[in-house]
Amino acid sequence: MKIVALSGSVVGSKTRTIMNEVVRQIQTYDESTNVTLIDLAEHNIQYSDGRQFIDYTGDTGYVARTIMDADALIIGTPIFQASIPGALKNIFDLLPVNAFENKVVSIVVTAGSSKHYLVAEQQLKPILSYMKAQLVQTIVFAEEKDFQQKQLVNDDVEFRIGRLVEDTHLLTRTFKKIQEETEDAYGF
């Protein structure tokens, strides 16, 4: 199984901190999982200009192809000004409309306060659904108070990450099995 953990911002440290924990827990849960962490802060991503994702080169091409090759995606995003970052939205714009068809997608959110909880529900989930994602319904939400000195310090958030990792694996395996059974029914 190939999972991409996407840290969807070019600034700040909380999203990367929590995504590091996601990767650690994926590796602990199933050592055979091929997990790739993509931190948008470490890549020079072009703005979407309408080309097919396979026509981009450099960091933009690498990120787009890596996401498209994954079985599952765990998206980490901060909430800025009651919205997802433009850098993350640009990633969605680089990909085809059905980019997440046959992919499981999970969400991890960091925000300054609990008032931003619904941003993922009202903005991110509709985009992912439009792009045909099989969504893990629960999200992990972490606030400012869950971090100290660039470290995650809330055991409950760590526990919820573990459950999200487990749910992502289970849904991905289940969905793959359903796909295989459907394809086998055609008999050619």
Percentage beta strand:
15-25%
Mean pLDDT: 96
Radius of gyration from the CA trace? 16 Å
Query: What string gives the helices and strands in order?
Result: EHEHEHEHEEEEH
Q: Helix proportion of residues, in percent? A: 40-55%
Describe the SSE topology.
Layout: E1 2-7, H1 14-29, E2 34-39, H2 58-69, E3 72-78, H3 86-94, E4 104-111, H4 118-130, E5 134-135, E6 140-143, E7 147-148, E8 151-152, H5 155-186
Parallel strand pairs: 1-2, 1-3, 3-4, 4-5, 4-6
Antiparallel strand pairs: 7-8
Question: How would you explain this protein's 3D organization?
Answer:
It comes from Shouchella lehensis G1. The structure is a single chain. This protein is of the alpha/beta class. Helices cover 44% and strands 20% of the residues. The protein has five helices and eight strands, in the order E-H-E-H-E-H-E-H-E-E-E-E-H. Strands 1, 2, 3, 4, 5 and 6 form a six-stranded parallel β-sheet that branches. A two-stranded antiparallel sheet has the order 7-8. Helix 1 packs across helix 5. The chain starts with a strand and ends with a helix.
Quickly list its features:
two-stranded antiparallel ribbon, six-stranded parallel β-sheet, alpha/beta, 5 helices, 188 residues, Rossmann fold
Could you write a compact summary of the structure shown?
44% of the residues lie in helices and 20% in strands. With 188 residues, it is an alpha/beta fold. The strands form two sheets. Strands 1, 2, 3, 4, 5 and 6 form a six-stranded parallel beta sheet that branches.
